Amino acid sequence: MSFTASTLSLRIAEWIGGRRGPEHGEVLLDRKRVYILPTRPGMVFAAAMLVLLVGSINYSLQLGYLLTFTIAAMAVVGMHHTHRNLARLVLRGQSAENVFAGDVVSFEITLTNITAEPRHALCLSLLLPQRRRADAQTGAGASAVWADVPANGMQTVRIGLPTRRRGRHSCPRVRIETRFPFGLFQAWAYFHPALSAVVYPAPEVDPPAL
């Protein structure tokens, strides 16, 4: 579902985004905009590696050293691939579809891969405050969007946002993340497309005859 966050998380996202506001045109996710931290399985993996290392030191196991450092090296390589899977992507807000109140407005975002390496398992979701949780849980349009981008290719995704009130609705901040390839690390970035849609008053259901 759409990513819901507390007020503190939203403030942190604003601080990370540098208070840029809506971003027009193409936005390159350079290395300064991509953040990475270990996931919960990654923390468990690190604890297991620490236990293996302590056991190898305690019992002077040469094969234990070999196993520990080999698996740890694979995790470090996986961290590099996780970060590289998101870095140097080009994002662009394309369009927004006008709808009636109660429908799901779709924001169209284009992902362009300018490198010769394909990008896998990218998850895009809207960063919504907790008060929008009930709205985000209604309708299929509230689900997060998964996408793969081919090498030197482009992929277009649509992210849905349920609406209840009429008026102009701006696209919230978009969170794009990946845990490829091992799921031990999570890399993410924020993108605030300059998109907005007009929500018209909903037509009356079963209206009386004119």
- The parts where pLDDT drops under 50 for at least 5 residues are 133-141
Rounded to an integer, what's the Rg over CA atoms? Answer: 21 Å
Task: Summarize the helix and strand pattern as letters.
Answer: EHEEHHEEEEHEEEEEE
How far from one another are the termini? Answer: 42 Å
- What best-fitting shape do the alpha-carbon axes yield? elongated
- Helical fraction: 25-40%
> Quick check: average pLDDT?
86
Summarize the structure in short:
Strands 1, 3, 7, 8, 11 and 12 form a 6-stranded mixed sheet that branches. Strands 2-4-6-9 form a 4-stranded antiparallel sheet, with no helix packed on it. The chain is elongated.
Give a description of the structure.
The protein is built from 4 helices and 13 strands. It has 210 residues and is an alpha+beta fold. The strands form 3 sheets. Strands 1, 3, 7, 8, 11 and 12 form a 6-stranded mixed β-sheet that branches. Strands 2-4-6-9 form a 4-stranded antiparallel β-sheet, with no helix packed on it. A hairpin with a 6-residue loop joins β11 and β12. The two termini are 42 Å apart.
Key structural traits:
13 strands; four-stranded antiparallel beta sheet; 4 helices; alpha+beta; elongated; 27% helix; six-stranded mixed beta sheet; 210 residues
